[in-house]
Structure prediction request, 845 residues.
Amino acid sequence: MQMPPPDPAILGRRAEIVARLRAALPGVPVIDDPAETRAYECDALTAYACPPLCVVLPGSTAEVAAALRICHGECVPVVPRGAGTSLAGGSLPTADSVVIGLARMTRTLEISAEDRFIRVEAGRTNLSVTQEVEPLGLFYAPDPSSQLACAIGGNIAMNSGGAHCLKYGVTTNNLLGVTMVLMDGTVVEIGHPSGEALGLDLLAAVCGAEGQLGIVTEATLRLVPRPEGARPVLIAFDRSETAGDCVSAIIRAGLVPVAIEFMDRPCIEACEAFARADYPLCEALLIVEAEGSEAEIADQLARIRAVAETFQPLEIREARDAAEAARIWLGRKSAFGAMGQIGDYICLDGTIPVSELGPVLARIAELAEGYGLRVANVFHAGDGNMHPLILFDANSADGLSRAEALGADILRLCVERGGCLTGEHGVGVEKRDLMDAQFTRDDLEAQMRVKDAFDPRWLLNPAKVFPLEVSAGRRAA
Amino acid sequence: MTTPEPRDEADLSEAIRSARGPLCIGGGFTRGFANGGARLSLARLSGIALHEPGALTLVARAGTPMAEVERTLAEAGQRLPFEPLDLRALLGTSGEPTLGGAIATGASGPRRVLVGGARDFVLGARFVDGTGMVVRSGGRVMKNVTGLDLARLLAGSHGTLGVLTEIALKVLPAPETARTLRLSGLDTAAACAALAAALSAPLEVSGAAFDAEGGIARLRLEGFAASVEERAARLAERLRPWGAAEEDPDTDWAAIRDVRDFAGRPGDVWRLSLRPSEAPAILARAGGAQRLDWGGARAWLLLPEGTDLRGWLGAAGARAVLVRAAPDTLHALGRFPPEAPAVAHLSAALRERFDPRGLLNPGLMAAA
Prediction:
């Protein structure tokens, strides 16, 4: 993976830039000690690392604006950072960039039970939002698996999903407004608690823009009533295709379960060895969750069971109580940890139409065999968001590069089958050079025009999302 | 005025490239927009390209009549979740509402309060921008964060950034049954409180409307029959502080959606986008005949002709859209409220890049 060479002029002015930031931001941590900037050299995509010029940790929107005004004036690139949990390298610094971290911005600004929203600073963790509004019987629906650690600002940048988006949607469907600072320090308020855009829907462009348009410092989030309860059913199959067909049939029957999760045999075996969830050893396993009142759950699970039985499953195991529900979820929730026990892995998140599940899994197995690598699949089946986990040996000389090459082949396969490169992790640097597989030059040109409008000097989150060759003219300007 | 009717994207691109002046873009031209420019009709860019019920996905060309979309979905027991508005009666227009028109105008109905609006169901789109460039954004899968989300940005842009040619949507199952509960004799403050109480409970209320002239609040539940029955009983219990809720099997939610109560009545029609908790105070000042939807987050107002509601309301007027008025009133006040300077600057910068010649519905969303 290539990054543009750092601008020597900026590197040479490092002391001056740091001094200007310190002078403008009294009391704000401005970190330039190389021992400390190393803590910011990467995010959760640890394969790539580069310490930044310096790190600023503002405590308010005004301080973010002050920092950006200086960087803009000095023509210094800026990398926004939430909690640093991006799996796509969304907050990977460059040596000539200033990291602006939101970790200190964690306040709640407003809660309205009547209008069902919360306004928070963007450094807040996802889970802490739901925890705060739990006493009101409400919750914030998007629940990426990193929700204990990941920041709302990062969720907005990546338009994060989670296991429950079949019913509740992803971040963009649950975001009502933002306060955002543009690269030149202008503070803009976008959106409204009603959720309705009266002019251009700029919020739609900002959500998922991976920090290319501005730094979101505050967010208004839609809250929804917490369902009374939820219980899963586990369904085991002897073929992946049958499991895929069963997912389609459940949906065609008029059911919208809150989650439909899929695991294949390699994943089931790893989870069994790790968590002993007592899963049946089979080719494919679905976990389908129903929610509502007790009577509604019972009714929905009965309907799901009736559909599933027409596919001759090996086993249907319905959770009768909370303990059994937890046991069914145990294996799925420990899937990533279980794979980590076996070896190093990279996790992809390409999405496919559900109808393509069978053929895509078969082709992934063939591709993996060609590379001599093992792949396990967990999958948000209801929305087609795959998570192939490619196992490799990081100690071997070409381990990572072979795993990445297989990953690229799998993502191209997803696009060929009508899907996309990334369903919830984002493009970042990881999938930047694959964008050509999904988009034409004109498609990318149109996206870059949006960035032109928000960040005309192309200083925000450099060298992400757009292939370097495609963005070269703009970055040089 | 010539009416170019492109048959495909290439035609459309050519029509835009060769345009000499402003275009008035439409599908069925049912929404009453006119700017004096040549009409560019999408009616022939029509047809459903894909409907995959098991994946809750529909892909159709922008000019596809809404009726055709709804019929196709209904055959599979599905529907468009956002309940698109049909404003022909209110506006006194004719023509065939199209899918592209609904998405381009963000025409979301009562169910938005539960499931989201038109833009929330857009999975991807193809469009031609003001330079004639053909662009694809998003895709046909439900989770997709690959690149900037232009499809959702185009939704609700009223054609001012590009002309939609094809749209991929998430659809949902049609429910087995629907029931409506009614509360009578409420004022707006009580109604907003009752609607908020209903929407804060895990009862999946899919419509929350108030007729301020009649003092009647209506709440809709949809789903499997047994579930709806159970939730209706619990909803009535929750609404007890505001009176005894009655079943109202005759409620016409399409009429509520389309504000048909104001059709044929003289006056200008305004739409306000509000925080429900602030709605009663603002609406008390606004006056006129009022209908509320979305639990009070949307208000429809029928006011004397020529009323400058924005001037009258001050800050709250910044959320007022003029939906129906005489041409000179529309011209004097503008349909859409002026935006805050920093936002207006960004919107203008986007339009300048997507439509540098100012061809696409100029003057509709912002002053030309």
